[in-house]
Amino acid sequence: MDKFTRLTGVAAPLPIDNIDTDMIIPKQYLKTIKRTGLGAGLFAEMRYREDGSEQSEFVLNKPAYRKASILVSGDNFGCGSSREHAPWALLDFGVRCVIATSFADIFYSNCFKNGILPIKVSRQDLAKLMDDAERGANATLTVDLMAQEIRGPDGGMIKFEVDAFRKHCLIEGLDDVGLTMVETPAIEAHEKKSAAARPWL
Asked: Which one of 61, 101, 111, 114 is most buried, by most CB atoms within 10 A?
């Protein structure tokens, strides 16, 4: 998993409450277990018409936001089914941070396990960030996980809270497998001791 320390990028405004995982990545894209290639299906029902052409008015199809790495959205982001394809699709598109007033629990947890930082902010702070994100090509935010700060294009700063263990995992780039691999020396020592004590096994 890629490390997350500081991210400076274009923030796309998506002022919609209750964006569920089916909106993030529709069910027809769930046939794969690969984490790559899902970016094309991100928000597919909002991004594309029935004939496959782009909906020009959808934010991620606008030239200024095509390479957005931050999403600023509404309440209860990631609700619905627990599909891990949702964070995979965001990551494959290039989104490393989602800012909202609240998140569905499973989606929130899955983000940390896939290298995405979900940030909870107050409604007042969200309004400021949404205003920043609506500036098109100038909609650049800097998210500093080490300092737990979001800085806007005009120098404004918002602090955010994050669980210390999850922060550590993102900074070090540790998913569940990575956390296990950190303990490799201890595991190998235990296996060696166990083999010596019970050679018949």
From this structure: 111
